[in-house]
Amino acid sequence: METLILSCVIVDDEPMALNLVESYVNKTPFLNLIKKCSSAIEAMEYLQNETVDLLFLDIQMPDLTGLEFSKMIPKQTRIIFTTAFDQYALEGFKVEALDYLLKPFDYAEFLTAANKARTWFNLLKGSSQDQVKKASTDKKEFLFVKSEYKQLRIKLADVQYFEGLKDYIKIWLKDNSKPILTLMSLKSLEEELPKDDFMRVHRSFIVSLKNIEVVERSQIIINKQRITVSEQYKPKFLEFINQNSLSN
Description:
Layout: E1 6-11, H1 15-26, E2 31-37, H2 40-47, E3 54-58, H3 66-70, E4 78-83, H4 89-94, E5 99-102, H5 107-127, H6 129-137, E6 142-147, E7 150-155, E8 159-165, E9 168-173, E10 180-183, H7 186-192, E11 198-202, E12 205-208, E13 214-216, E14 219-222, E15 225-228, H8 234-243
């Protein structure tokens, strides 16, 4: 059975608490820590460009509290609150937190909460199988993108890869020596692309899986362009490679 790995971010303004939760995450096989943040503002900036499954989120922090921040995160990111103040429990469940850990908590309590998250995501994955099958027969074949005051029709089959550049995206197409430039975030684009045809492999790159020519160590080669697969996206990419490799 395929092992589900959850990407997670820890947010806490206390260094000792941050390090403790990090140690718990690192000893939990189905959790993959991709970022530690010492404030909700830092986490908010990070999540503008990255997709995360799970947040371990402190509540009482300066400038922006965990409860305030929880109302701003994407719906696909779930929360486990960590706090020293039990009066926030009701508010935590009002924002649909998966669990609520009261400091100081030990690894057994942490693991119970983490397992709740794993169960939730496994159920979500199972319930979406029929939707995935339907999507495969009703897949997007093109997108309209705005470039130079025009709406251009882009055939997804012609896309080799997308390259993020701050607020812009370069769209590299087959048989085109110059990219199409459009004002858009890579995260917004990622949500619109067919998941079985395109994969984000780096903070700045989404590649067409069908147009990968060579995989060499941690790099993908498409039309002589080398694209590094970053550590955050490597597990998912390696899973794709393994699923499509001939067994020895």
